[in-house]
Write a structure and sequence with these properties.
The chain has 16 helices and 15 strands. By secondary structure, it is an alpha/beta fold. The chain has three domains: about 270 residues, HUPs (Rossmann fold), CATH 3.40.50.620; about 150 residues, Isoleucyl-tRNA Synthetase, Domain 1 (Orthogonal Bundle), CATH 1.10.730; about 50 residues, no CATH class. The longest helix has 20 residues. The structure holds adenosine monophosphate and zinc ion. Zinc ion (ZN) binds next to loops.
């Protein structure tokens, strides 16, 4: 099938046809987590979005090298080289070594992403594992005249850079406005220009994470790691650079500057940014304290949650929104997604029970497939694909009920379609099924018996059903939409 994948490029602010630099090969770099605390659901949304993108590129037949870093050093609290080191602060709080903090939260991050059924990247480099590459890059930037050292700290010279390059290319901001929004330098400041940022930072005596360098003992600035590691594993120029939208203004803007000042070429052809998960309209973030941990969402153990949701229902919730739209968290939206997800899985479970016939009259699978590809080719539009899948759910249910017919060959093709789009591309799996094929159907029977008992004021039976289900890890929740269930 001919594909015409189009994706939105932040760099040009429009949708563009995807043409990789080397035919059939794709290099993709995504900014990974700063591993000083548990990942929250917002972080997960970004990584699930890039998992969808990765999966689809692989499905189209590209050989993808997907690099996603772990930031385990150099990230200060403020984006502008100010504040405490995030790792040192947390290490003090938890009475651990900074590298124990790194290990603990890296493992937690991997556990959570595994639950969301994301495929691990091809390479997951760490900042601490690439100190010499970062030092080398800083040296090259200095040699090219775009950085200067003051008292053991090296700064990127933005004034010098803007004479040759466009510092605001990614965000299209006005440089004057940016300057006006940055605080004026005082006598204490070492840097020459207000927009200058640190490439290498001199370590104070108490700073634990420190390395020798040509400028004395210190540690890398936050932005340089991504430039150095993307260059090492993907080359001076590669296809896709991604991350959350919040990274574009500072982190990615500075990454482009560093790479251009070092390699004389822009690093990525396409810049892709995912939109934010919000809670009541506000961005979910670690610092704002409105971050749900995935574990809390799975168990329902959080004051803002009515109940728990399975990881796949949450993944489905995320995929129902386009990656460039905001996604607002609410119990109602999750309930609706959970219902939709179960409806999809219940229909798929019926595929093995459909009786085949001599002829098919269920519609045209090739057309369904073409529309599904068209959705994904249009900037990875998963909500449109999911709408198409609900049409397929309707068809499967009618085939099962005998209202429509299908031949054995068409049934195999339908199964292949579901396997491609639901399992491989959307990355969903059935986490509802134990030994029972139609778990939701079975649960609806039990919920019906419990409702009947309640209606008859037989609370011994209704309570007993709920308690026994809890014992085997199934939670019931009575709501406006009726009784809902989930695994805990
Ligand atoms: P951090 O660990 O804070 O560096 O963030 C890791 C990734 O999660 C980055 O790509 C961020 O842009 C992204 N991110 C942070 N908060 C959110 C959010 N509320 N919604 C979606 N992505 C987010
Ligand atoms: Zn980065």
């Amino acid at each position: 099938m001919e594909h015409n994948l189009v994706l939105y490029n932040t760099l040009t602010r429009k949708k563009e046809k995807f043409v990789p630099i080397h035919p059939n090969l794709v290099g993709m770099y995504v900014c990974g987590p700063t591993v000083y605390s548990d990942v929250h659901l917002g972080n997960c949304r970004t990584f699930v979005s890039f998992d969808l993108i990765f999966r689809y590129l692989v499905h189209l037949g590209y050989k993808v090298r997907y690099v996603r870093n772990i930031t385990d050093a150099g990230h200060l609290e403020g984006d502008n080289d100010e504040g405490d080191d995030k790792f040192a602060k947390k290490a003090k709080l938890e009475k651990l070594e900074p590298m124990e903090i790194v290990q603990k939260y890296t493992l937690g991050f991997h556990d959570v992403l595994r639950m969301f059924n994301t495929i691990p990247p091809s390479i997951e480099p760490t900042a601490t594992g690439h100190i010499s590459e970062q030092i080398e890059m800083v040296q090259e930037i200095m040699k090219n005249g775009f950085a200067y050292e003051v008292n053991g700290t090296v700064y990127f010279d933005v004034d010098k850079y803007v004479k040759e390059y466009n510092y605001t290319i990614l965000t299209n901001r006005n440089l004057e406005d940016m300057l006006n929004n940055t605080r004026e330098l005082g006598g204490q400041d070492e840097k020459k220009g207000r927009l200058d940022f640190a490439l290498w930072i001199k370590a104070k005596p108490e700073h634990i994470m420190r390395w020798p360098s040509p400028w004395g003992v210190g540690f890398p600035g936050w932005h340089i790691e991504c430039s150095a590691m993307s260059r090492k594993y993907l080359g001076d120029q590669f296809d896709i650079h991604g991350g959350g939208m919040d990274l574009a203004a500072t982190h990615h803007t500075n990454e482009i500057a560093q790479s251009e000042a070092c390699n004389h070429t822009t690093p990525a052809k396409y810049w892709m940014h995912t939109n934010m998960l919000t809670v009541n309209g506000a961005r979910m973030s670690k610092s704002a304290g409105n971050g749900f941990l995935p574990g809390e969402l799975f168990t329902g153990n959080h004051p803002l949650l009515n109940r728990g949701y399975s990881p796949m229902a949450v993944r489905f919730f995320m995929l129902q929104a386009h990656y460039r739209s905001t996604l607002d968290f609410s119990n109602e939206a999750l309930d609706a997604a959970d219902k939709g997800y179960k409806r999809l899985m219940s229909a798929i479970a019926l595929l093995d029970k459909i009786a085949v016939s001599g002829k098919s009259n269920f519609g045209n699978l090739e057309e369904i497939k073409a529309r599904s590809y068209a959705a994904m080719d249009d900037d990875f539009n998963s909500p449109v694909l999911i709408a198409e899948l609900f049409e397929v759910v309707r068809i499967i249910n009618s085939l099962y009920d005998g209202k429509l017919t299908i031949t054995a060959a068409d049934l195999e093709a339908l199964k292949g379609y579901v396997s491609d789009f639901v399992f491989d591309i959307l990355g969903l799996k059935d986490d509802q099924v134990g030994d029972v094929d139609n778990m939701d159907g079975l649960m609806q029977i039990l919920i019906g018996i419990r409702n009947e008992a309640k209606k008859n004021k037989d609370f011994v039976t209704s309570d007993s059903i709920r308690e026994k289900l809890t014992e085997i890890g199934i939670q019931l929740k009575d709501s406006k939409e009726g009784t809902l269930w989930n695994k805990i």
